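agent> Task received from the user: take the single chain below, predict its 3D structure, and emit structure tokens. No templates, no multimer pairing.
agent> Plan: (1) validate residues, (2) run structure prediction, (3) serialize to tokens, (4) report one or two observations.
agent> Step 1 OK, no nonstandard residues flagged.
tool_call: predict_structure(input=
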Amino acid sequence: MSQDDKDGIDRRGALECMIWAGTGVLWTMAGGIPRSSSLLGISEANAQAAKGFSFLQISDSHIGFKAPANPNPLGTLDEAIVKIGALPQKPAFMIHTGDITHLSKPEEFDNADQAIGKAKLDTYYVPGEHDVIDEARGKAYLERYGKRVGAKGTGWYSFDQNGVHFVGLVNVADLKSGGMGALGDEQLAWLADDLKGKTASTPVVLFAHIPLWTVNAAWGWGTDDSARALDLVKRFGSVTVLNGHIHQIMQKVEGTVTFHTARSTAFPQPAPGTAPSPGPMKVPEDKLRTVLGISEVMVKQGTQPLAITDSELVKA
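)
tool_result: status=success, residues=316
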């Protein structure tokens, strides 16, 4: 086995990553290949962070949520930020993939900002449906997070970091209860124009709240026009799609595109098909953190199936 194989990177043709179902995900970009590890102190984070450009993903903080599934989501967000602060190498920035708040109230945004600010990282946001239910239909979100990044429309934008092109997309505007997400013609036209000047060798990261692949149509866990967006990135050799919304780790790979959904920092939701409907899933209070687990996933270019090993993070 070559050193490249040991490192999980076979030039740009392979991806070996540790997927951790925890309160956040540390992503490392090395040679255009994304790898992830937990924020929970494992030494693997040391090795990955030292190899390349790293950033964080957190999601679904739901500040203001008060139901039994987690009556203190601000507390669990604080725990995630403490773990981020303990990382051996400071990431370049953080991405929050939506549902910062539960009811779009100013005090909820304020509390979230105060907690997330303790990480002392530049943070890039996309809205979840819970962030745009104010009377002004998302104006508070845009005022707070959109201006800094020069957001267009309902909040979409892009930026470049260390040769990687990041695109924040919005698929929750005018979302109907139980319905699928949508990007819309205006945003898709902007995306096509945004990607025009990028070479096929440019690593691309798309991030949005609702998954850009259909996890469960009956629950609205997907985006109606995601195929049009994915068609625009099919020419790129490395594409990573980061989402939240479903409060659980799921991953799949299609060609050069890796799809990943993150855990919530607030509460879990049921796996598709295991409950009559989605929503906060109550677990015993002393077991809440036992829902955090790990999935080790190896993906190599070609026809090999995913090799996945799951284990609990903390035994009940």
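agent> Step 4: summary for the user.
Residues 1-23, 40-51, 292-316 have pLDDT under 50 and may be disordered.
agent> Done.
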